[in-house]
């Protein structure tokens, strides 16, 4: 066996590779959005696709998010599989009408006659110093809408695998791409891209015994770092990466919390009305008798996303997570 | 008897005659962009106006190059330069009365500065310390708007409200060619026309929306044509001719002020630099195209017109440049100072009366900052033998990038 030096790929490149492979395998897959063609997207995820597949399949649209998603609905009605790109989290909002009123409901309102297999890619979250309206964490809005799958990768391998799954799904998927991980690399081999498990499975990223950190997307690396730091304090933390917010993998999460007896949910979107509330409630319902302490949440503050020079005070970092972990010693404290 | 039963006898009556609305008279824009500089009409322009526009153009260009330089030094996170479009920016600012309102898009820092805003305050969004670093009421400049075209309905509403109150105020809203594809653009134009609101829309057609050329944005003969369908006049103007832009906007504003409703103005111009400093324009356009536009530079056009009429000599040019240089030096110096930020500002203006939830989070951050400061001071003690200085909870932030 020869070992070939593998050039590590970034998450952005893995996403591009997933689009390319999906388009090669299935001629009904179309990519569309603002600047996705000639430019290759502002994050270069679609780099090279227009050249390879032509403008009819990789389309620079007019600048209109409602129009992009609305026309994608019609294309999906006629048997295509559109993958649309919303340029930034906060610029997807004009498309909400289409997403909520049609994309999410079409299967249900037509009693299954008109399913919409389309994927909406949304770069989301902060941490890259973006100005106003470029750092929103919008996952709670999507999670609150029945009919949508909501997926977010944290590793390069998952970026590839989950996007392939999303495109292949017969239901609409909101595919949230953590902006600050676009340039991250890991051991994923771009020469042997592997699909992952179907959408809806969480994964334990790090085994531990004393508590579970439940997280996803941009907060996964932060939690892994916190878990490393916690060792010094005598805590052996388990880290669960949800990967999919809808559907939710109760099994993996509950199994972990039953093992550890303690849990902290970590995400950067606001805590009030945020994903953590739902997750904490589910964990409590399933693991009440195993819990040694209440399920805690570490989230972004409940404020409009701040200007970049202040964002480090807003984003949940290692210290804030360790603080919560310390509070898990509930008995001693109360 | 139903209609079906009497079919033989049924004779549908024609609908009442449809009257096309023809007022205000011709809505269609001229076939060619309106131009003043380089034509005979330039001879009749008020010399003072020419000089004012010239000085602002030179200052504007200098502002653009200085801001771009600041991005390279890491003092600005990002700058969408309006280099090449200064004539639109400057004319938009100068044409307004003090009581009027300007609704800028994210590329229009220059228009805001030309209207009187502090150059540093106008850059806070792009530097990253504040979302809007100025009080919009001070110079009647709405916050620089990042989501495209969303400021247009605001401009219509404000103009409408002013008229309801009996105030003689006009709103001028700026948008790019790409922004005209957004739903908000269309809804704003429709409201404005139906309400006959005193608002003027200025589209700066600079050829591109990031990488997407106009041909992929619209199939209309011009963006000014879009006015017709809403029932308002459309005007087409050379966007590099500051006098022409000033003239066309002036007419549109007078029209609006007279209660005759909105106008859509399309200024044809060109973006000489990449979309922002983070963009690579080599991917979507040829240098030759950029160079062709350089020959139609707004400052050169103005300089030529002024010189021809004997309104400008070398000393005049030097004086204007020195003034622009002083502005740039001041901007550079002030931007090189680290902004003093208070992290507690995160909570300062979320609600008029903070919620209990936010007060709790505020306390949490304060505790974190205090702990950080103690930690800092301890380290300081170790290093310097106990010369702890000020409390660090409100320590000025360094540049985070
Ligand atoms: C609603 C919305 N969608 C997408 C974006 C991202 N974006 C920022 S600028 C830009 C291009 C704007 O082009 P144009 O309107 O022509 O203005 P110009 O940049 O040429 O001044 C895009 C797509 C945005 N800011 N807002």
UniProtKB/TrEMBL annotation, chain A:
Transketolase-like pyrimidine-binding domain ranges (all copies): 9-184
E.C. no: 1.2.4.4
Cofactors that this protein relies on: thiamine diphosphate
Classification via Gene3D superfamilies: 3.40.50.920, 3.40.50.970
Keywords: Oxidoreductase
Protein name: 3-methyl-2-oxobutanoate dehydrogenase (2-methylpropanoyl-transferring)
Record SUPFAM superfamilies: Thiamin diphosphate-binding fold (THDP-binding), TK C-terminal domain-like
Pfam families assigned: Transket_pyr, Transketolase_C
Annotated organism of origin: Streptomyces ortus
UniProtKB/TrEMBL annotation, chain B:
Coiled-coil zones: none
InterPro entries to which the protein is assigned, alphabetical: Alpha-ketoacid_DH_E1_comp, DH_E1, PdhA/BkdA, THDP-binding
Database matches in Gene3D superfamilies: 3.40.50.970
Ranges of Basic and acidic residues composition bias in the record: 368-378, 389-401
Keyword tags: Oxidoreductase, Pyruvate, Thiamine pyrophosphate
Disordered: annotated segments: 1-25, 368-401
Cofactor requirement: thiamine diphosphate
Keyword Oxidoreductase attributed: yes
Domain Dehydrogenase E1 component positions: 67-342
Name under which the protein is recorded: Pyruvate dehydrogenase (Acetyl-transferring) E1 component subunit alpha
Lineage top rank: taxon: Bacteria
